Structure prediction request, 272 residues.
Amino acid sequence: MSDSSQKIEARQVEKVFSAGMEDEVQALGPLDLNVRDGEFVCLVGPSGCGKSTLLRIVAGLLNPTAGRIDIRVTPEKSSPISMVFQDYGIYPWKTVEGNIRFGLEIAGIPKSRVKEITEHWLDRMDLSAFASSYPDTLSGGMRQRVAIARALAVEPEILLMDEPFAALDAQLRQLLQDELLNIWQKDQRTVLFVTHSLEEAIVLGDRVVVMSSRPGKVVLDQEVPFERPRLPELRAQGDFNDFKNELWGCLKGEVEHYLERINSLTKKTEVK
Ligand SMILES: Nc1ncnc2c1ncn2[C@@H]1O[C@H](COP(=O)(O)OP(=O)(O)O)[C@@H](O)[C@H]1O
Ligand SMILES: [Mg+2]
Prediction:
């Protein structure tokens, strides 16, 4: 039975990629996942377990090979879902302002509103001074701010983020996590956020979902027990580390599976 209080509802979702006649990769599932309206859910799991595949299925960029996925968004909205990728995904030939504006134009926002919204997000992401700069003149952190501004400016009902901060150094990463937290705490959009980092997942998420090694299934789905608004100091709390260790206990086994598989593949290749 489908449950209309859920914004995203995945039931027994699977994805098999077929590379050739016999080469099939079971990339994902069967996986069940619910995300409520306004909830911030973080997905963690070993490399190659199907996290990006799941996000692409939710975004409607890929079809599952089995199972069903229900996404409950307002049908008349032109861009109900936005996605932010690890490698920024912004246009190098457009200025910072042009990138944000373009997203709004594509979404069919009336011209009269586009300028106002663009300025609002430039200001909110501290990018106003760089409005006419091109992305390749900016630092990685600033480029990622542009990507986030572009994704949020269209006011999506669902924001999908695929390791958006993975390429950044630790300090910048923390800065952007805190910024995202600030924004989310004001707007409370539904967010599905993929990360390698348990710390990041716990700082940001209402729930942390741990996936198994490929094909990714849910092995743990845990509420984060820390109140909001969450402050940067949370990371230094003892109970933060206790919770992180508890989750690591689960994730570690999955990462070990993944490493075993890599090792056995390497050995097979050596024998050949
Ligand atoms: N287009 C594709 N064709 C074939 N295999 C794919 C394709 N996309 C992903 N895969 C495989 O599916 C598995 C899951 O990939 P992915 O979702 O990118 O994992 P993650 O994001 O968790 O690292 C991997 O084994 C990957 O190689
Ligand atoms: Mg990925």
Observations:
- The pocket of adenosine-5'-diphosphate (ligand 1) is lined by residues 17, 19, 25, 27, 45, 47-53, 214 (CB under 6 Å).
- The mean pLDDT is 91.
- The radius of gyration is 19 Å.
- Residues 1-74+164-272 form a domain with the Rossmann fold fold (CATH 3.40.50.300).
